[in-house]
Amino acid sequence: MADGKDPLQKGKDLAFLKAQLESLQRRVEDEVHAGVGQDGSLLASPFLKGFLAGYLVAKLRFSAVLGFVVGTCTGIYAAQNYAVPNVEKTVQDYLGSLRKGRD
Known about the structure:
3 helices, mainly alpha, 0% strand
């Protein structure tokens, strides 16, 4: 038992999860069946529209937050451990040298 859980407890957990999954499946089937008429399309289902909208917002929000956190942490690490050049000063020097070259 590498993870420290009793096999009996694992079986109970799996049975509980299976019951939850079956319950969710029944609910989804009932909502989809109730939301889609014989003449309607699948996209007319309010359940499906809500699910897709929620999924999209969750994905966008999670990826934006995760990207911000990873970028911030990476920038802090790089600034502390490496000689990171000052990009603004480098660009200004380059543009200044271009202006001097034209004169």
